[in-house]
């Protein structure tokens, strides 16, 4: 063994696969965060507006969260499979669409990985948002109703501002989780085709445990940790400015 200094970090700058994985991770984080926050909030509002079978519907929404990522990935892999045709190609054929292997398409692989990952974890944020929305004072909502606010105005100007702190916490949780996303991408596509759905975490795993390059893998792991810390510090600074404003 010999000390390599900063050689592994310099290698990251010229490694095309690492650059692709980094850009994919940024896309995965941005899209995954937006989708999970939106899905969680929409599901929470639906549960809040439903009077009958609320517990059953809430349980159905939460089921993907308790199913393993491997099982979720295999379910969607079979649904998207072309041979034998899964549910998605079969439905598409009814509308005259030719079967297309979406998971093998470099233009669709990362998008599907991101959406499937968001579907799995959106139920967690549904529960958080549901609890936060329930804590909003009913008297405030009644006063707004008397003043002529409709449901949409109550949501935009009363409910969402009152649960802002919860939204900020979940945003931090989502960004941190997406930056470290691994399981769905690795099981569903293995980072392929090529490096189209490769994430920093999956590339880290392959570098250490498949290629056996522990030095370079350690450098990538340090980059991943620093990336998460810097992003969270930026979010904290932004939230701090918002509080001062």
From TrEMBL:
Residues 22-235 form the ABC transmembrane type-1 domain. The chain crosses the membrane at residues 20-48, 60-80, 110-132, 214-235. This is Sugar ABC transporter permease. It is found in: Cell membrane. Keywords: Cell membrane, Membrane, Transmembrane, Transmembrane helix, Transport. Coiled coil: none annotated. It is a multi-pass membrane protein. InterPro entries: ABC_transporter_permease, MetI-like, MetI-like_sf. The keyword Flavoprotein does not apply. The keyword Cell membrane applies. Gene3D superfamilies: MetI-like. Belongs to the binding-protein-dependent transport system permease family. It holds the Pfam family BPD_transp_1. It comes from Bifidobacterium kimbladii.
């Amino acid at each position: 063994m010999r000390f390599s200094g900063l050689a592994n970090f310099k290698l990251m700058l010229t490694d095309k696969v690492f650059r692709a994985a980094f850009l994919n991770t940024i896309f995965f984080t941005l899209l995954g965060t937006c989708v999970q926050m939106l899905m969680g909030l929409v599901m929470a509002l639906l549960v809040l507006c439903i009077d009958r079978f609320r517990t059953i519907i809430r349980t159905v929404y939460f089921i993907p969260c308790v199913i393993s990522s491997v099982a979720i990935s295999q379910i969607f892999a079979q649904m998207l499979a072309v041979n034998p045709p899964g549910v998605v190609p079969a439905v598409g054929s009814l509308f005259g669409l030719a079967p297309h292997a979406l998971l093998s398409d470099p233009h669709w692989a990362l998008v599907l990985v991101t959406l499937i990952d968001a579907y799995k974890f959106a139920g967690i944020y549904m529960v958080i948002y549901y609890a936060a929305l329930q804590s909003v004072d009913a008297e405030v909502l009644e006063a707004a109703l008397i003043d002529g606010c409709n449901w949409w105005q109550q949501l935009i100007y009363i409910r969402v501002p009152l649960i802002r702190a919860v939204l900020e916490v979940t945003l931090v949780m989502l960004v941190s989780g997406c930056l470290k996303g691994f399981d769905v991408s690795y099981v569903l596509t293995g980072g392929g085709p090529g490096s189209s759905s490769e994430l920093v975490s999956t590339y880290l795993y392959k570098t250490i445990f498949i290629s056996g390059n522990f030095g370079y893998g350690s450098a990538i792991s340090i980059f991943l940790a620093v990336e998460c810390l810097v992003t969270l510090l930026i979010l904290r600074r932004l939230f701090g400015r918002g509080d001062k404003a």
